[in-house]
Design brief:
Number of strands: 0
Oligomer: single chain
Length: 181
Amino acid sequence: MGKAREGLSLAEEADSLAHASGDAVQEAKVAQRLGSLWMHMGRHEEALSFYTRSLDLARAAGDRSLEGQVIGAVGMCCQGLRRFDEARQHYELYLDSSRAEGSKSGETTAIGNLGSVLLDAERYDEALPYLEKYLKLSREAGFRLAEAYATGGLGLLSLVLGRGEEALAYLERCLRLSREI
């Protein structure tokens, strides 16, 4: 925690400087980074506060790309807080934003996040098409880490649904991919 606290202290100083500069985009980026630091420390409520501020600033500045990124981060934060419906709404907004920006990596991530939150919410029938699409898109784009996540998610889903052989195949593929990365 020592390094994280040190990083947090530096980020808070940068936040003050960004605010004083009057540059809303830079302030939004710093607030987003502070949110990420709090998330990594497991402090989701604090993270959500910074992400919300970042989102407001990005919107005020008209930075659609940054807004989309922060919307996805808010979704992850809500998922960590087990506020699954709220997380899903943010992931859907992130998906729309990514498509509007033409970001294939953003679209792939948003679809994976939707599958993940539905899996966490035990809405298995709804999670399956997202996880399958996540796997397809990640393979097409050559996103190996995303492919590993997708196969892992499908493995867990298959396990929960009692499809042992299918689960094993997915999880072995996930393990192979993880070792290759």
